[in-house]
């Protein structure tokens, strides 16, 4: 890809995407420019990734073909105010914030602007991201093909209807956090039984990775895969029974509902 990529905001999510893009070889470090609030973040990004850095958001906005707004949702208003007259007509502005809608972006820019709304996740850093995307009507079919290629350089990407985007953090944007909690809990349980902690994390994480690959690669229903682990009268079904009695699935559903409600509440910020 020969296009330039800009990041306004260079925190955890931006760095995960930058690392993923560079690792894939699709993008060279000198094609990327990022801005942030503090020099320390920029020094880190420059030495870690070899990208161009600046504290000037306008410099990033002027030079980018793909411009990621990678700041917290409550900063979108002031950042757009700063850059709205500087973005080139063909630049595709890409949002990654929970709750920021296409309509919000069009109104904030007060001009015709190409916008892609996305929801990535931090496993992008290791090339295993899951991102969803939707676009406004200024983004052409050729544009979206290029945007998808960019997102696929650090994982999987799916185009979605915008009305579903507020529900995406709960299932893939935020969910790595609950999976880490699960892995931590599995490791604690192992340590409780005397397994050394470093081994416990490796065993737990590899089991989660393997189970996820089984769902993706066998096409079997998760219930069927679970049944294959539960030997009748065996040990696994005891664990499953305890999880069900303690509302494991119901708790996950409630957590996801809270996450979605908060994503909706962030709209328009
Ligand atoms: N973290 C995640 O897993 C995910 C996050 N997102 C979204 O990504 C966005 C960023 O989140 P995250 O990366 O976690 O947050 P971070 O706090 O890690 O990063 C925010 C970045 O914004 C920079 N910043 C703050 N003010 C300005 C400014 N005025 N001009 C330029 N840059 C500024 C900060 O600079 P400095 O470092 O110098 O303070 C920092 O680099 C959010 O909108 C969030 O919803 C989406 C999906 C997943
Ligand atoms: O917590 C948040 O609001 C962001 C959105 C998805 C992951 N982190």
Automatic annotation (TrEMBL):
<comment type="similarity">
    <text>Belongs to the pyrroline-5-carboxylate reductase family.</text>
</comment>
<feature type="domain" description="Pyrroline-5-carboxylate reductase dimerisation">
    <location>
        <begin position="162"/>
        <end position="265"/>
    </location>
</feature>
<keyword id="KW-0963">Cytoplasm</keyword>
<dbReference type="InterPro" id="IPR029036">
    <property type="entry name" value="P5CR_dimer"/>
</dbReference>
<dbReference type="Pfam" id="PF03807">
    <property type="entry name" value="F420_oxidored"/>
</dbReference>
<dbReference type="InterPro" id="IPR000304">
    <property type="entry name" value="Pyrroline-COOH_reductase"/>
</dbReference>
<dbReference type="Pfam" id="PF14748">
    <property type="entry name" value="P5CR_dimer"/>
</dbReference>
<comment type="pathway">
    <text>Amino-acid biosynthesis; L-proline biosynthesis; L-proline from L-glutamate 5-semialdehyde: step 1/1.</text>
</comment>
<keyword id="KW-0641">Proline biosynthesis</keyword>
<comment type="function">
    <text>Catalyzes the reduction of 1-pyrroline-5-carboxylate (PCA) to L-proline.</text>
</comment>
<keyword id="KW-0028">Amino-acid biosynthesis</keyword>
<dbReference type="InterPro" id="IPR036291">
    <property type="entry name" value="NAD(P)-bd_dom_sf"/>
</dbReference>
<dbReference type="InterPro" id="IPR028939">
    <property type="entry name" value="P5C_Rdtase_cat_N"/>
</dbReference>
<dbReference type="GO" id="GO:0004735">
    <property type="term" value="F:pyrroline-5-carboxylate reductase activity"/>
</dbReference>
<keyword id="KW-0560">Oxidoreductase</keyword>
<feature type="domain" description="Pyrroline-5-carboxylate reductase catalytic N-terminal">
    <location>
        <begin position="4"/>
        <end position="99"/>
    </location>
</feature>
<dbReference type="InterPro" id="IPR008927">
    <property type="entry name" value="6-PGluconate_DH-like_C_sf"/>
</dbReference>
<dbReference type="InterPro" id="IPR053790">
    <property type="entry name" value="P5CR-like_CS"/>
</dbReference>
<keyword id="KW-0521">NADP</keyword>
<protein>
    <recommendedName>
        <fullName>Pyrroline-5-carboxylate reductase</fullName>
        <ecNumber>1.5.1.2</ecNumber>
    </recommendedName>
</protein>
